[in-house]
Amino acid sequence: MSTPEFPRIEASVVVAKPALAQILKNLQGAGFTLVGPTRRDDAIQLEEISGVEDLPRGWTEEYGAGYYRLKKISDTVYFAYGPGPHSWKRFLYPSHQKLLTVKRNDGKWTFEPVEDRVPRYAFIGMRSCDVSAIGVLDRVFLGGDFRDPHYARRRASMFILTVWCTHAATTCFCASMKAGPQVQTGFDLAFTEMPDKFLVRVGSEVGAEMLAGTDWVPASAYILGQARKAHQQSEKEQKRQIRTDGLPKTLYDNLEHPRWEQVGRRCLSCGNCTLACPTCFCSTVEDTSNLNASECERTRVWDSCFTLDFSHVNGGNTRPATRARYRQWLTHKLASWIDQFGVSGCVGCGRCITWCPVGIDITEEAGALMEKPATSGAEGAAR
Question: What is the Cα–Cα distance from 45 to 62, expressed in whole angstroms?
Fold first, then answer.
């Protein structure tokens, strides 16, 4: 019996490491714009790439609370990095999105909605936590009665090549959020990197077609067992966790817990955590016009619930204190997000820990509330 041209969906196959270059060429030939990790400014950044030569081969990262450094390792490793300073959401939900243009001609106003042209993105090297994060954003922007057309256009033609983790960063806690270290849906191809080969799980028909010309072979039971051990080891390496059982109720019942005041004194309200987060979606709208007011534009820009103006409404500010803004962020992320979208807003990537200038750790804050609740109701919630 001859080997089929492409593997079936859900099949696990093995390819040699040089085959990665062919897969990326296949994606480009199919009209995809490659986006992946690359080394720039002493960090692993997510940018458009031209091929395997742009990947951070031989580099990994060291993480801590408020700490990040690159580290050189073996040149045979392509995907040794973890969550970097940026998340993939900026390619689906840009930081600046023009929504419409208004023009005045002969005393009449015309409104021109923006239907921007977007590339067909192929995301290369996405971790499982970020695949889960896109699933969360799908619920936010596509799951309700009002769909975001700009997000929908970018999302519709996207290809995901995820890399399942065999080692965990010190700030990772995706296992406790059930968002990693490997997910079984939401990808086209899923790689597990081994010393001289890739184990590839096929997630879609398009993903199978991108293996053309790679001399793939079915994965043996031994290879599958080795990969399973590596995935389990990645989960065991995660020292941080969030207990999710009963967490929403605990947060709702402890809006005046003294822990909010403690973290409020440390927090700078800089918004780094929300900008680095792969699921935060707060935004504001800015209107600009030319000098003679004959044309204006409306643009959606990223915002943060940590900025003072974000919670300002007619009559005053609903969250004037830093403690209240931090409480809003954490309680929404881990509790009311579930009420709104049916899933937690946290995927355990640890970016908010790494990129907090003062090293505030969301797992420590949630853990403190779970260990020593001080139920006192919701009075004074805006203080």
Answer: 15
Backbone angles phi, psi at 84, to 5 degrees: -95, -165
Per-residue pLDDT of the chain (383 residues; tens, 9 = 90+): 446 789 999 999 999 999 999 999 999 999 999 999 999 999 999 999 999 999 999 999 999 999 999 999 988 899 999 898 989 999 999 999 999 999 998 889 999 888 888 899 999 999 999 999 999 999 999 998 899 999 999 999 899 999 999 999 999 999 999 999 999 899 999 999 999 999 999 999 999 999 999 999 999 999 999 999 999 999 999 999 999 999 999 999 999 999 999 999 999 999 999 999 999 999 999 999 999 889 999 999 999 999 999 998 888 899 999 999 999 999 999 999 999 999 999 999 999 999 999 999 999 999 999 887 665 444 444 44
Beta-strand ranges (E) seen in the chain are 12-16, 33-40, 43-48, 59-64, 67-72, 96-105, 108-113, 121-126, 159-163, 189-193, 197-202, 217-218, 283-289, 295-302, 312-313, 316-317
Query: In angstroms, rounded to a whole number, what is the distance separating the alpha carbons of residues 268 and 245?
Result: 30
DSSP string for residues in 296-347: EEEEEEE--TTSGGGGEETTEES--SHHHHHHHHHHIIIIIHHHHHSS-S--
Overall pTM > 0.85: yes
| 8 Å CB contact between 127 and 231 | no
